[in-house]
Design a protein that fits this description.
278 residues, alpha/beta, 10 helices
Length: 278
């Protein structure tokens, strides 16, 4: 079976964009923190499958739980940046974006002793200008474009749906989150869609995308393995469905995924396909 790139956005349940209207940044410290335990589940699961992945770590998490970052790194996984504050890129200024990138990058490099070369924007919110800034700030690849072209929060940045890995005009490598082409483009990269789609159907979709593209990039969040996370009640039905649906089954489905496919880091995959990142 061909390798798939597997990635995790390391953030806590209260960082997600769905809850921004009820959870302020000033509240983050006072809420129950569960990202350590959830990420530990992923590390154990990956170790049991002898699989490696890319962990896009939020700077806020890295600063609060530095030993967690070190453990991920020592376990042989790739550490990449998820920014620091989990702000949507298209909602902040270019200077704010640069500051957010630099703060997270330095923090992660100090913890790992290695250059951080990959980035993923919160909620796939990258912009055209943001891609140029990433290149200027020393990143070698980005994974912030979701090929799904209908979503209320993702960036509407123009992208070619015919290739998952693309070298941009500025030299930055873009690793896109794939869709499965049918009558319409179906979301198939992971996250809530992974929780929603029955696993046998999802696995067949991954095989189909691999056959078409020779590659696949999967993503998930630690909180998606945490059914017992604190529940927010003052949200609407759609928000409850978006965040909580399928949490009980996610860990079991992830175990199947990493055993059905050979999983590797984004950095490893790109290096092995003649992109020569390092």
């Amino acid at each position: 079976m061909k390798d798939i790139m597997i990635s995790f956005d390391i953030e806590d349940y209260f960082h997600v964009e769905t809850f921004k209207h009820i959870v302020n940044k000033g509240d983050w410290e006072s809420l129950e923190h569960r990202v350590e335990g959830s990420t530990e589940k992923i590390l154990e699961l990956m170790e049991n499958a002898n699989a490696k992945g890319t962990f896009f770590v939020l700077g806020w998490v890295a600063e609060k739980f530095p030993e967690l970052v070190k453990k991920i790194h020592l376990n042989g996984h790739e550490i990449a940046s998820h920014g620091y504050n989990h702000d949507l890129v298209y909602n902040i200024s270019e200077n704010e974006f640069r500051e957010d990138l630099r703060k997270s990058k330095k923090l992660l490099e100090d913890l790992t002793g290695e250059e951080i070369i990959g980035y993923r924007a919160p909620t796939f919110s990258i912009t055209e200008d943001g891609l140029d800034i990433l290149k200027e700030e020393g990143f070698k690849y980005d994974s912030s474009i979701n090929m799904l072209n209908y979503h209320d929060k993702y960036s509407n940045i123009d992208n070619e749906e015919n290739q998952i890995i693309e070298t941009l005009a500025n030299g930055l490598i873009e690793v896109k989150i794939p869709v499965m082409k049918s009558v319409v483009s179906l979301p198939w990269g992971g996250g809530g869609y992974f929780r929603l789609i029955p696993y046998p159907l999802y696995r067949n979709g991954v095989k189909k995308i691999l056959k078409q593209h020779n590659t696949f990039c999967f993503y998930l969040h630690p909180w998606e393995l945490d059914y017992n996370q604190p529940k927010f009640e003052n949200i609407n039905r759609f928000e409850k469905f978006r965040h909580y649906y399928g949490l009980k089954q996610t860990e079991k489905k992830l175990k199947k995924l990493v055993n059905d496919f050979e999983a590797c880091t984004i950095k490893t995959f790109l290096n092995n396909t003649n992109n020569h990142l390092v």
